[in-house]
């Protein structure tokens, strides 16, 4: 019994890190969110018209690289959203409004996301230079920062309901780490905004290289969570061993 209180009921579905999956059902909130994500992905499409000749097809093909990168970034946001609701399955007022604000920002974020990568690969009809580049980078970085700060707020709201959700010590630890991880990702976006605002306009695009820090940050936080989870599992096994004996 003590081991179950420390971790989870062995008959409940759990994620790889031991987090119980409370949101395996499909709610109206899930359906609404997926519709918004689907619409956002539609806005990324290079062109809604079928090419009429080889030149148009050739031009469309070059647009698939920035489209693919933008699609991948948006899918990462969707996966973070999917993971949160799969683990907590919360539908309280705080979650609904934070989720609504998150979806609103995502729809806005699509435009600087698409424009930035089309311009980076020379597919935009607008020349990106000087203050134009700075403005797009600022919009992109501010959108990304807001998205991940909202993810952090969603996890903080779930942690506030830890007793109601019956979070185990393991789940509470992981939730605290998720709050820090998502807030740290948002902070990288803030740093890019600050750098893009102070560097010369023609250098603003280079500040996007700082986003590579996000991969390092998430790897560090993932290892930290993994070590803590393994330590808690070891403690539970040590508790269980005398009981079995």
From TrEMBL:
GO terms for cellular component: membrane. It is found in: Membrane. Coiled coil: none annotated. One of its GO terms (molecular function) is proton channel activity. The lineage of its organism: Bacteria, Pseudomonadati, Acidobacteriota, Terriglobia, Terriglobales. It comes from Terriglobus roseus (strain DSM 18391 / NRRL B-41598 / KBS 63). Its main location: membrane. It catalyses: K(+)(in) = K(+)(out). It is a multi-pass membrane protein. Belongs to the TMEM175 family. Pfam families: TMEM175. The chain crosses the membrane at residues 29-48, 60-84, 96-117, 137-157, 178-198, 204-221. This is Putative integral membrane protein. Keywords: Ion channel, Ion transport, Membrane, Potassium, Potassium channel, Potassium transport, Transmembrane, Transmembrane helix, Transport.
